[in-house]
Each structure stands twice: as C-alpha cells, then as structure tokens.
C-alpha cells in the first residue's frame, strides 16, 4: 500500500497519552490484547517491553 505507521505499541501509547492524566495509570495497568494476532508466541512479552520503554517510569504496565 506504500504507507508506513508505528507499531501497535506506539498506537497504544499515543492513545493513552491523549487521555486525561487522571486515568492514565489505570489504562497503563489494564492493557487488554485480543484478536487473532495476539496468539503469536511472545507477543504479550514484547508488548510489555515496548510499552514499558515508552511509558513514564512511574507507571506500572500490565498486559492482559
């Protein structure tokens, strides 16, 4: 198609950062992955690592 975009971790991070500051902690702590591609081995661990690298260090990231 010729289009480039960030990965799902970038999209997730950008979505959380657009939300009110008061709810970001809850959002980082409750990221739910669903759908067919989430069944790939290691995808949750990779998402955890990539979101943790982007998120503020004070945030606890939990991928469900």
Automatic annotation (TrEMBL):
For this protein, the parts annotated as crossing the membrane are none
Where would one find the signal peptide in this protein? none
User: Pfam families recorded for this chain?
Assistant: Actin
Under Gene3D superfamilies, the record lists: 3.30.420.40
PANTHER family, per database record:
ACTIN
Name of the molecule in the record: Actin
